[in-house]
Structure formats: C-alpha cells, structure tokens
Amino acid sequence: MSEQKQIEVSTHLEIDFDKLSKIGMSGHKVIPVVVQNAATREVLIVAYANSEAVAETFKRGEAVFYSTSREELWHKGATSGDVLAVNEVRINCEQNSLLYLVTPQGQGACHTKDESGKFRSGCYYRSVLNNQELKYV
Fold first, then answer.
1. Measured between alpha carbons, how far is 66 from 32 in angstroms, rounded to an integer?
2. What are phi and psi for residue 3, nearest 5 degrees?
3. What's the rounded Cα separation, in Å, for the pair 54 and 58?
4. Distance (Å, rounded) from C-alpha 90 to C-alpha 61?
5. Helix (H) or strand (E) run with residue 9 in it
6. Positive or negative CA dihedral for 22, 23, 25, 26?
7. Rounded distance between C-alpha atoms, residue 102 and residue 88, angstroms
8. How does DSSP classify residue 130?
9. Backbone angles phi, psi at 53, to 5 degrees
10. pLDDT at residue 53 in the model
11. What angle do CA 68, 58, 23 make, to 5 degrees?
C-alpha cells in the first residue's frame, strides 16, 4: 500500500505540518479554497486555486482547482463524475482564501471510499481523539 493510501485509511495521526511551506517553496501562486455543501453546510474539501483555476470555476460554474502535487488544473469530477456545481463564491476579509458553496453532482467529493466501496461525501471522515489517534465518523 502506498504511503499516501496508508495515510488516508490510517487511524494514527500523521499531520502534514510542512504542506504550506512545500507549496510556498515550490513557487505556486495559490490560495486555499474551502468547499462546503450549500445545502448541508458540510465542509467537503480544502483545495488550492490559482488565478486560472478561479477563472475556470466562474466560466464552468463548477469547481476547478490547482493541484500542487501534479502542477496542473484540476476540474473536480472530470474523470470521476463527482462534479461540484458552484452556487456561490465568497472571499475572506484579507482576500487570501475562498469559500465555494457547492451542490455535489455525483457520489461524493472525496476520492476515498468507505468500507462498503462508496465514495465519501467529504474528506473530513475522521475525528481526532487525542494527539495520536483518529476515529471514523
């Protein structure tokens, strides 16, 4: 099992505190995007967007991000069918992060699956119990 896959299914806490410094050192000009289900208010995912991704989001009416690991635009759901229709875009007070209020069009927003093989609705499917353990919610 790959290291990334192990992190996604683990109940051991392994927070990546270096993520933002890695993005900064790479020179990617991105901002965080919090994606929230417009109906349920569940936070589905946190991703990054550059200016091109934001423009594509408005053009398509669907969430488009910038993948810092693949260094390319990422139209959420282009291959999985789990498109996120954007109802509203909000910006924070300092204009350095966005909130997309969306209506999911597919099975879920997360690329991981639960025990039954169904895509999860969002990426926040574990709760932190203490400084070392996670539990599925």
1. 10
2. -60, -40
3. 6
4. 14
5. helix 3-9
6. positive
7. 7
8. S
9. -65, -40
10. 98
11. 15
State the DSSP string of 27-83: T---EEEEEEETTT--EEEEEEE-HHHHHHHHHHTB-EEEETTTTEEEETTTTTS--
| Residue 129 tokens, joined | 């119990």
- CA geometry: angle 20, 25, 26, nearest 5 deg: 100
Which CATH number fits the domain that encloses residue 9?
A: 3.10.20.810
Domain count for the chain, please give it.
Answer: 1
| pLDDT tens digits in sequence order for the chain, 137 residues long | 788 888 888 889 999 999 999 888 899 999 999 999 999 999 999 999 999 999 999 999 999 999 998 999 999 999 889 999 999 999 999 999 999 999 999 888 998 999 899 899 999 999 999 888 999 99
Q: Residue 72: give the domain boundaries.
A: 3-136
